[in-house]
Design a protein that fits this description.
It contains 13 helices and seven strands. With 301 residues, the chain is an alpha/beta fold. A seven-stranded mixed β-sheet has the order 3-2-1-4-5-7-6, sandwiched between helices. The protein starts with 12 loop residues before the first helix and ends with a strand.
Length: 301
Amino acid sequence: MNGPAVEHKPVLAKTLAEQINLPPDGVMVDTTIGHGSHSLLFGQNLGPEGVIFGLDVDKKAIRRAHFKLKDLPCSVILVCANFSQISDELAKHSIEKVDFILADLGVSSAQLADAERGLSFQSNMPLDMRFDKRLKSSAADIVNKADEKRLADLIYKFGEDRAARRIARFIIRERQKRPITMTGQLAAIVCKALGQSEHKRKSKKHPATRTFQALRIAVNNELENLEKLLASGPGLLKKNGQIAVISFHSLEDRLVKNDFRQNEKEGIYRVMTKKPLVASREERAENPRARSAKLRIAERQ
């Protein structure tokens, strides 16, 4: 198998390596294995007794990670499952406690470029957005079937877009003419609703960014799954074990911050990052995806 066509640069990898010190026989759970880049970094310091347990709903990501990690000295177990099922999946492999849980919540460059995913407005592709093809509803289903109020609420709640009602109204109007099945169609409708041009705009951020984010979160139940992962952390981590989460928007970061703080109040965690760690100027220049990344780490007491 050849390497992926679009190479994924792991965000905040150096910062993570400075903060997390795994013992040679450590057990690491990479809940979003992706291309395996973060796991490769830690796996190189694990010995034969060490374990990397990787989860991902994307079968293509599992295949890429297997290719990247196959020569590591430690054991590598890769499972196609959502990280909300972390406890069940570890139990199936008789793993009770772990040293490190990592969740990188970002969308990879390869996923954005994959026409089957339908995640990007940079090129015209079928409007899907499912990371896991076993999910029943796609973004096109929501856009074409949801009523105006539900659409507006969804875009406001998950996209934090103040123009949510106007965008929803334009979507309803356009879908009455013909179904909205392509990402380019939807992006053009949002631009029209906001009175902005896709190509001539003041901001670096595309006008449809928030709407696309909202639909992706809704389609994949992202916040609900993150809550389940965070709830599993205390029961899975060994004493002094660590959990690290890299988030890319305020909704995710708020969930992580509040969970860590609550667990610290209850004497379960020690929060190691009072403020989130962010990418250096050099990393942001080299990897634009790192601009919005925030890393929070907590340690089990």
